[in-house]
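pinned: reference chain
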Amino acid sequence: MSGRSTALLALYQALIEQVKLQYKEEDSPTIKVLYQSILKSKQYLLLKSQADETEIALVEEFLKRDIASFLKEQNADSLSHSPTMIAIENTFWHWLNEITDKSQVEWHELSQDFKHHGCYQSGEIISQGRMVCTECEHEMLIEFPSVISDCPTCDNNEFTREAFLP
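pinned: its structure tokens
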């Protein structure tokens, strides 16, 4: 490995250590929060000054992957984040959704649509509906109250809500 590659690798490892430190300091940060803070860090700016555009693009993709992997590992010990518990919770909410008076839920959601002027942001809580990305029109089905995540297709954070049929 060349000296330049070793230096870039050392800077990347410093970025990953910063992710770990920030995770310990914050209460359940998201991938997006960790990633954005890393892009503003001194180590990243130093790395950016020493690498070309192709290397920076590769580093950014690795960062997204490694941050997601790190958060997955951290949450693996928590029972509430286990695949089994998530599947049980989703099944429960799906059954509840099937027996709910959907017209009442839609009236509530309609009032929320008026408050939001039809536009929702990631990080907001919604109880039901089909969220449609304003950028790529990717649809996310939400059957139970949950926080709206960024679009998994284009990483956009703005959505419109389409109602379920009562």
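why pinned: Strands lie at 120-121, 125-126, 129-133, 139-142, 146-147, 158-162. The helical segments are 3-25, 31-39, 42-50, 53-76, 83-99, 102-116.
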